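Bench notes, bay 3.
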Amino acid sequence: MGLAELMVDGARRGGGLLLDALLPPQCLACRTIVDRPGRLCAACWGGMQFIAAPFCACCGLPFEVEAGPDMLCGECLREPPRFDRARAVLRYDAASRSPILAFKHGDRTDAAPAFARWMAQAAADLVTAADVIVPVPLHRWRLLRRRYNQAALVALALGRLAGKPVLPDLLRRTRATPSQGGLGRSERARNVQGAFALRSGLAGKVQGKRILLVDDVFTTGATVEACARVLRRAGASHVDVAVLARVVRTGNDPI
């Protein structure tokens, strides 16, 4: 490293130290002071339930017992989803809800790089196989109110980590759907039916490609199913899904 590079690097480090002194980095969940931005404190980290095998080979739903690498959950056997595979970083519970909601609604955009790192590990096979990464879009009115799309921030950070192209505007919401909160499986599916479309002129970005779709929370899968349906119709060869967290109900043994 030459003298000029050393000076630039030193200035960058000094600026970071000054910023940390003025605005100390906070835990993504409880806002306790931590050593680096985008971190969880030890107590919050210990409360997170990261999802690991065994899980459904298709949707990634965790199993309570080992079932073999190709075993499917009952739901995927009864009605195979439109996507090929889905993986989640965390169980969506009281511990994970706080940092995810802070990221989604509380302007904690500093969480995006950490979430992308976790996602890169949890969905490593999907990330490696992907030709392009695509976030689930927000409707333009919701985007104006929130000022950012949390799924797009994670997708962009994941793309930088993996060296994969990201198309944040490939999909669009054609209508402002009501919140999915409190809705059942069939109601969620109806709520997002026909709510997504491919942006005009971008079909060539999809045809024959392996798409990795990124979202924040997987509850019933209705949203990613609707997006996957659009991508399939546009000619995508595969559609995989990576999310930060998923709702896990009891009784998840394979059939």
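Next record in the batch:
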Amino acid sequence: MHIGLHIGNFTWPGGPPTLARDLRRIAVTAEDAGFDRISVMDHLWQISFNGPPEADMLEAYTTLGYLAACTSRVQLVAWVTAVVYREPGLLAKMVSTLDVLSEGRAWLGIGAAWNEAEARGLGLPFPPTAERFERLEEALQICRQMWDESDAPYRGNHYTLERTLNRPQPLRRPPILVGGEGERKTLRLVARYADACNLFYSPNLEQKLNVLRAHCTDEGRDYNEIEKTVLMPFDIGENGERADALLDQLHQLAALGIAHAHGRVPHVERITPLEIIGERIVPVAATLQPAG
């Protein structure tokens, strides 16, 4: 099992003047500690889970470009891109650029978007739910097309691209993670297009996996090809006193077939929690084999 770090809160003691240095320190420490992946949210205002909308929030892809320069090994992903915030042709180009400049470490994390308040507040498009999912499917098709050698046109119901030229190509086709666990639409799109899914640590997790398995059967897709990821808190306590409890959770997840646990780390700016996770969690997680 791999371990990832999700950075969703940028309100740190030094404020904006030291934010870049603090973020670099966090990313370098996480990489040195053995984290496999680092993600940031694709939000423009802070979400209520983390604080008020007025709290500090960085734009995702600018931040990922900065993290690419700060690190050399960890995979980089927006967890997850709001599909209606950027035109798909531009998004495919942005992820391609991130992949080239990070030397092959970019992922595309993408979802149907949900934060209507921030979209309306900043004048971004936010169509009804059904249309957002239609746009999500077309965006997935466009990205996949732009990441092959064809530059043929693309014509969908919502997007028209006259020439899907994309040079330079990514060093590898960026893996696609579709975020969300809606049983009727989102998990069907996972089965059809994605390399990974994003689920939540909850009592419904096994049910969601069973739904995904059924969609894979319907789509003729090998369920085991899809990496199952879970977003969860990595709250190990002030001095690691809750590390064993986290390890118990990871064992449970591996038994369900989860291959990647992606964590929000309280007080990540203090650095010590990342070091403890590197010492006590990452080596044990590496021995866990997800059930098939």
